[in-house]
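Lecture 7 notes: from sequence to structure.

We start with a single chain of 377 residues. Read the sequence below before looking at the structure.
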Amino acid sequence: MFETRPKRVLLVAGEASGDMHGGALVQALRRQQPDVTVVGVGGDHLRSNGMEVLADVRTLSAAGLVEIVGSIPRHHRVMEMLKAQMDQHRPDVVALVDYPGFNMFVAKEAHKRGIPVFFYIAPQVWAWGKGRAKTMARIIDRLAVIFPFEAGIFNAHGRDFARYVGHPLVDGLEVTRSAQDSRAVHGFSDQQPLLVLMPGSRRSEVRLLLPAMLAAAQILMADGWQVALLKAPTIDQAYLEQIHGTLPFPIPVVEGDAYNMIAAANAGVIASGTATLEAALLGCPHVILYRFSFLTYLLAKLVIGHRMVGLPNVVLGRPFFPELLQRDVTAGNIVRAVRKMAGNREGCLQAVQDLRKAMGESGASQRAAEELARLMP
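Now the structure, written as C-alpha cells:
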C-alpha cells in the first residue's frame, strides 16, 4: 500500500497586511487539512500559524513603481529561492497573498512549471487599469477576491476563475478594551482628543509621509490634542528616529495594539492602504495620505488618472474620507482635514454602516481556504 505524503503549499505574502491575512488563511486551511505543510515568505502571523518561513516579509518591503527598483537585488534572491522550492520540493499549489508587483512574477514561474496557482486578495485592477486582469486569467487557476464587484471584472476575460469570498477584515477587527482603558494602558488622558498617526508599513511610505505627519501633529498638540504613532512591525524604531533626524522622538510610539488604539482615537492620519479600511470599519474619522516619488506619481497618474485611491472611498463609491495626494500632503492641509473629520462623527458612523453592508458577511478566510483546498490533487 502506498503512503500519501502531506499536501505541500508554497505561500508568499509580501508585506505586513498580507502576512496577517495569510496567517488567517493558513489557520483556516489547517482546520480542513491538519497535516498540510506550508512553507514560504511571511512574517510573525504566518509563523505563528505553523508556516516554515524561508524568507521574512521584511525582505520584500517596498512600494511604488520606482521605489521597488532599489529592492530588486533582495527580490531577486527571494525569487531564486522560490524557484528552487518549486523545482526541488514541488508543492501541490502555490498560494499568493496580495503583493501583486512581485507575486505576479511568482505566479508566472509556477504556471510555467505546471503548478496550480491560487491568488488571494486581487490586484486593484479597477484602480490601475484592467489589462492585468487578462494576464491573471491566463496564469492564475483560482482567484479569491475580497470586494463583490471584482469577480465580474476578472471573469470577463474568457475564464470563470474568480470567486468572491468576502473581506477578511470583517472577521479580524477585534477590539479588546474600552476606549478609556486603551488610552490608560498607553498613558493617554480620556479628557483630551486623541490623534493616531499611521505612516505605513514600508520604509518608502514612512520616509515620504512621516515628516508632514509630525509637523501637523505639533500644530494639533498646541490645540490640546494628544498624538500617538502606531508603528507597523516591519518598521523599527531606529528608522523612525532616522527620518525625524533628532532624538528623542517627539511623540509616543505604540506597537502591537493598533485596533484598540484606532478605536480609542478621535481621528487618524493614515497612509493609503489596508489600514484606512481598518480605521473606517473601527469608526475612526481619518485623513488618507498617498505619496510616491515624483516619477512614480507621474506614471501612476497616466494609469489611474484622478480616481479615488483610498479603499474606504472606493468601496463606498464616494469621497467621504479626505485624500491628500503628493504635493497636497502638507502639515496645513492635514490639520484642516483632521479638524473637519473630527467634527463629523455622525457622518462617519453612517459611512461605517454603509461600508459594513458593502463588504459582506464574516468567514472570508474560511471560504478562501476552501477555494485553495480545491486546487490540491
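The CA atoms of residues 12 and 41 lie 5 Å apart. Keep this in mind for problem set 3.
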